[in-house]
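Tip: read the tokens left to right.
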């Protein structure tokens, strides 16, 4: 009886247990249904997030590559503009320009050739041919005519096959302007594979297809299949995107036949060039496919843990999403700050100074300028301890550098400080550090300074040389005033004293009736008065030759050379060529004083027996040649700076001549050899009457 009751009791319990298990299983399956739906939503959101991150990374990479390519092209144009200002094109001296351009081409491997053409398009110089060969007209007349029309640098597209090179090249052109007139158009021809090399070296992600097209939609460079594509029109989707907006996205097929999603940017100051990077659609959508596969397997395995995992996954998803969005925003702002500093830096060195970690991260250029990373490869970064960086700074400048860093971090103001770097030996080199603390958020900056380092040693050396020149010119002026004062005191003063005493003696003689003696006294006084007049005239001539105002430059120079030759027993010849018309007083005075200073230098240093002066009055300039047969000197040795690091002291006479010429826009060329003699070539522009 008891056993039956026990069995009856156990049966409902077993049923209840099975029902509970079924209910639990039902609840588990019921919970699995929203879990699967929620998992699908989570997978979609995560895949979309990854896709958005990939697109954002693509935008940042394309922007960086576009800025790098634009910077490289701008650097090539800057070098070309500097060459356009070369003195070899003033005369012009085509042989010297040819040699100078050849040196530049060897220093720039991307240059296929350098071309110089007249305003009519006829080539004058092409490094692919010798100077004496006949050259045809320039290729790509569209960009050439734009330079002639605008007189501004122009970056052309891919041109037709050149008559000299036989290749389709990309032209960078700048005007050569002298006296307000377009004399030539100077061009650099870049091979298309050189532009492709710039594109590949700009740091595009692996697997992406990069393309550069010109304003006409023709392909200039490509990271793949260059030969088949270069010079041909780009696909219609690319051309339609360029016409629609200067930057954005579009989808289309590549030359290889795969579909890609393309991000593009128009390059700044390149005449309409644009850079395009295609991301394979399959690779871009791969995270979505993988997330669904992983989600499907994980959903099957996680049905039993659905109730617990739903909360954990939701919370974890929200935290990860918020964290990644914050990191992405932080990285984007940091990238913008670094991009702003890089835009200011151009070709300069960049660094990141972390005052919290006491570490400095710098580019190879910055590390070399700061004297602690001389062995860093170009394009790489290096890191050093703050104390190591400060050790390379001159001891007198360290506190000023540290104070500038503290002030910039405290106030958020830009930092701009100049200091000296200790190099091998006693030599010091000036550098400049400019930067600012990054504005990543509204809170206090986290102890970071982004900056650029530039070499200002040439400017500092020029300032020191100019100060030394001004000091020596001041001394020379003071010495000249002292000499004139001494002459007036020693000669005119003594003669006036003698004249005064003679007048008193004459007064006594007249009072005593000694007529004969008084007559002799009067003659002596007349001689004294004449001597006073000659002394005063000589002093006045030293200050300003009256012959220059009365008779003109030719007679003034002739009088100067005759007197100088007679006084110092050195033969002096004068040759005056060209027009006999007067030139502005400033030009006449400059020529007279330059010849005067050159004669003084000959007397002091040359030990010459003969001096020749040739003055040629041309329509638009005065040309003066002063030549002696003295001992000469080594020009390079005289211009070399002393070994102790101090700037080379200028020769006062030559420095004074250059100072006069700089005020008139003139030039000085010096030729000298030991034991041969010295020749000065002076050119002074003559203003034309309006």
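Filled-in amino acids:
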């Amino acid at each position: 009886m008891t056993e039956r009751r026990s069995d009856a009791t156990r049966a409902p319990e077993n049923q209840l247990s099975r029902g509970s298990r079924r209910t639990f299983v039902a609840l588990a399956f019921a919970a699995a249904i929203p879990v699967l739906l929620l998992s699908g939503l989570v997978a979609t959101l995560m895949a979309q997030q990854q896709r958005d991150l990939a697109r954002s990374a693509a935008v940042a990479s394309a922007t960086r590559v576009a800025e790098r390519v634009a910077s490289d092209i701008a650097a090539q144009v800057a070098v070309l503009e500097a060459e356009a200002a070369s003195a070899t094109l003033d005369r012009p001296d085509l042989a010297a320009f040819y040699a100078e351009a050849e040196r530049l081409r060897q220093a720039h491997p991307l240059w296929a050739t350098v071309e110089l053409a007249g305003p009519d398009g006829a080539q004058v110089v092409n490094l692919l041919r010798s100077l004496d060969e006949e050259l045809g007209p320039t290729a790509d007349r569209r960009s050439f005519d734009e330079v002639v029309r605008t007189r501004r640098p122009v970056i052309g597209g891919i041109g037709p096959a050149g008559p000299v090179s036989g290749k389709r090249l990309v032209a960078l052109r700048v005007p050569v302007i002298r006296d307000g007139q377009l004399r030539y158009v100077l061009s650099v021809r870049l091979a298309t594979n050189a532009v492709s090399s710039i594109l590949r070296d700009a740091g595009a992600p692996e697997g992406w297809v990069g393309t550069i097209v010109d304003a006409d939609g023709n392909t200039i460079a490509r990271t793949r299949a260059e030969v088949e594509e270069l010079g041909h029109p780009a696909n219609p989707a690319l051309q339609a995107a360029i016409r629609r907006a200067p930057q954005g996205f579009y989808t289309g097929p590549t030359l290889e036949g795969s579909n890609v999603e393309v991000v593009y940017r128009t390059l700044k100051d390149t005449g309409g060039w644009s850079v395009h990077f295609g991301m394979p659609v399959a690779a871009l959508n791969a995270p979505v496919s993988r997330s669904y596969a992983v989600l499907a397997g994980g959903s099957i395995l996680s049905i039993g843990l659905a109730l617990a995992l739903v909360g954990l996954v939701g919370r974890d998803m929200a935290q990860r999403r918020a964290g990644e969005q914050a990191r992405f925003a932080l990285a984007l702002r940091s990238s913008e700050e670094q991009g702003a500093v890089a835009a200011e830096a151009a070709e300069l060195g960049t660094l990141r100074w972390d005052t919290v970690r006491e570490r400095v991260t710098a580019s190879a250029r910055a590390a070399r300028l700061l004297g602690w990373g001389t062995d860093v490869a170009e394009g790489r970064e290096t890191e050093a301890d703050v104390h190591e960086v400060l050790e390379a700074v001159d001891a007198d400048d360290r506190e000023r550098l540290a104070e500038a860093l503290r002030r910039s971090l405290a106030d958020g103001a830009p930092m701009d400080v100049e200091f000296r770097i200790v190099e091998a030996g006693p030599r010091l080199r000036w550098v400049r550090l400019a930067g600012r603390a990054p504005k990543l958020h509204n809170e206090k900056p986290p102890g970071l300074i982004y900056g650029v380092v530039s070499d200002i040693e040439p400017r500092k050396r020029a300032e020191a040389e100019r100060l030394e020149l001004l000091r020596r010119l001041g001394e020379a002026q003071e010495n000249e005033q002292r000499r004139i004062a001494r002459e007036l005191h020693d000669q005119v003063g003594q003669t006036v004293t003698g004249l005064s005493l003679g007048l008193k003696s004459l007064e006594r003689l007249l009072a005593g009736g000694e007529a004969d003696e008084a007559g002799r006294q009067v003659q002596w006084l007349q001689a004294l008065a004449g001597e006073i007049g000659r002394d005063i005239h000589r002093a006045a001539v030293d200050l300003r030759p009256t012959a220059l105002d009365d008779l003109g430059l030719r007679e003034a120079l002739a009088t100067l050379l005759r007197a100088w030759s007679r006084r110092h027993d050195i033969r002096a010849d004068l040759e005056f060529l060209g027009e006999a018309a007067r030139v502005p007083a400033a030009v006449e005075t400059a020529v007279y004083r330059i010849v005067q200073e050159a004669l003084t230098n000959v007397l002091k240093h040359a030990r010459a027996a003969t001096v020749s002066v040739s003055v040629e009055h041309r329509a638009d300039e005065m040309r003066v040649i002063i030549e002696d047969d003295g001992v000469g000197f080594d020009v390079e040795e005289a211009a070399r700076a002393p070994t102790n690091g101090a700037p080379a002291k200028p020769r006062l006479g030559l420095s004074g001549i250059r100072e006069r010429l700089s005020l008139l826009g003139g030039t000085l060329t010096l030729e000298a050899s030991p034991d041969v003699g010295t020749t000065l070539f002076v050119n002074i522009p003559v203003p034309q009457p309006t």
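Residues 2-84 form the longest helix (83 residues). Residues 1-6 have pLDDT under 50 and may be disordered.
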